[in-house]
Amino acid sequence: MQIEIQPFFDQATSTFTYVVHQGQGSIAAIIDSVLDYDPKSGRTTTHSADKVVSFIKEHELNVEWILETHAHADHLSAAPYLRKQVGGKIAIGERITQVQGAFKKLFNLEPEFALDGSQFDHLFKDGETFRFGDLEATAINVPGHTPADMAYQIGEHLFVGDTLFLPDVGTARCDFPGGDARTLYRSIKKLLTLPDHTALYMCHDYPPDERPVSHLSTIAEQRAYNIHVHDGVTEDEFVALREARDATLEMPVLILPSVQINIRAGQFPPAEDNGTAYLKIPLNQL
């Protein structure tokens, strides 16, 4: 099975976007796109997304899916922009409804904001398979970081979202609304039962100073070297470590704008009567 995977790294948010395809003129999927956002001015731009658009047009790809591994708290999704430019269905895990419920309450969103995931074109069930071109993919529910996290497996390639990072960075935090360290441990252990040679594609990398940014790992490397969850680490040990570490972490710089946008499948909030869309900043809540 021919498969080509093109990563794009957004340095401002340490995020990897992937285009998965089978060569010139083939069907493609985009995973975890980035809309550039300046928190000082509140202005958005599409420089990162336009790199993806240029690649797709250069290779004459036909986009069928624009996949989100979860409602990101560290960057805004460019999914609607990409759908307008190159097509495709925006999809996420069906438990996004739980995340929408938690954050509608936090942000006191408009009564019309639906809690059924209808902002997305498709909601994946755990274990659901889908195709693009000759490639078959499986959506795997991996909650813990948030209730709605999904990993996407395409043959021997696994896009892990915010579950695992590179082994020297560890695992995702679990202190957002609906997050749970014990649940994350079990999700990760489910992934680590895959064959050792399975390639893992990171959503982020925050490397120590001594190594360059990297997007790729394997099941074998994670089981041997992951500083939080290598073989031999018990569930209780992981929960104690993860909860202690999370207690020391600041909130992500873009969590407040990101979540408000991403639970809407990347759409902005409805414009007010002056034609401008606004984001909310809840005081003393996070």
What does this structure look like?
This protein has a single domain (4-262), classed as Ribonuclease Z/Hydroxyacylglutathione hydrolase-like (Metallo-beta-lactamase, Chain A, 4-Layer Sandwich). It is α/β, with parallel strands linked by helices. It has helices at residues 47-58, 79-86, 96-107, 181-191, 219-225, 235-246, 255-262, and strands at 4-10, 15-21, 27-31, 36-38, 43-45, 62-67, 89-93, 122-124, 129-132, 135-141, 150-154, 157-161, 199-202, 216-218. It is globular. The model has no long low-confidence stretch (mean pLDDT 97). The longest helix is centred in the first third of the chain and has 12 residues, at 47-58. The protein has a six-stranded mixed sheet, covered by helices on one side. The chain has seven helices and 14 strands.
Could you write a compact summary of the structure shown?
This protein has 286 residues and is an alpha/beta fold.
Helices and strands, with pairings:
Layout (H helix, E strand, L loop, with lengths): L3 E7 L4 E7 L5 E5 L4 E3 L4 E3 L1 H12 L3 E6 L11 H8 L2 E5 L2 H12 L14 E3 L4 E4 L2 E7 L8 E5 L2 E5 L19 H11 L7 E4 L13 E3 H7 L9 H12 L8 H8 L24
Parallel strand pairs: 3-6, 6-7, 7-8, 12-13
Antiparallel strand pairs: 1-2, 2-3, 4-5, 9-10, 10-11, 11-12, 13-14
Helix pairs in contact: 1-2, 4-6
CATH superfamily: Ribonuclease Z/Hydroxyacylglutathione hydrolase-like
Helical fraction: 10-25%
CATH architecture: 4-Layer Sandwich
What integer value in Å does the Rg equal? Answer: 18 Å
Kindly identify the CATH topology.
Answer: Metallo-beta-lactamase, Chain A
Strand order of the largest sheet: 1-2-3-6-7-8
Order of helices and strands: EEEEEHEHEHEEEEEHEEHHH
Beta strands, count: 14
Tally of alpha and pi helices: 7
Structural class: alpha/beta
The CATH class turns out to be Alpha Beta
Question: What number of structural domains do the residues give?
Answer: 1
**Low confidence ranges:** none
> Main β-sheet, in a few words?
6 strands, mixed
What portion of the residues fall into strands of 2 or more residues?
15-25%
Overall pLDDT metric: 97
Which oligomeric form is depicted?
single chain
